[in-house]
Amino acid sequence: MDRAVEDIPTAPVDLETEIAKAIADLRPVLQRDGGDIELVAVEGDIVVVDFKGACSGCVLASVTLAGVRKRLIDAIGHPLKVVPRSAMALIGKEVAA
């Protein structure tokens, strides 16, 4: 029986793996400006990241965060909340590294 490629079921892609891949694709852009980003955790629809280097404490970090969120939503295909680890600490929520 001949089956087309689109007829063959595929295993579901792990959400955290897809998010990690999308963030890895963004890292060189941030690194060119002396910054970096690290995926800390994925908890449901919340993605926790850690800004490093020039991104840490940058006045444009919120703009960068919005760009990261948009790229992740484009890559994953559904809404996500992207928050910096520092914001999680401000609301008293611990995030495992």
TrEMBL record:
Query: Could you tell me which Gene3D superfamilies the record lists for this protein?
Result: Fe-S cluster assembly (FSCA)
What highest taxon heads this organism's lineage?
A: Bacteria
All copies of domain NIF system FeS cluster assembly NifU C-terminal, residue ranges: 19-83
Give any Pfam family that matches.
NifU
Q: What is this protein called?
A: NIF system FeS cluster assembly NifU C-terminal domain-containing protein
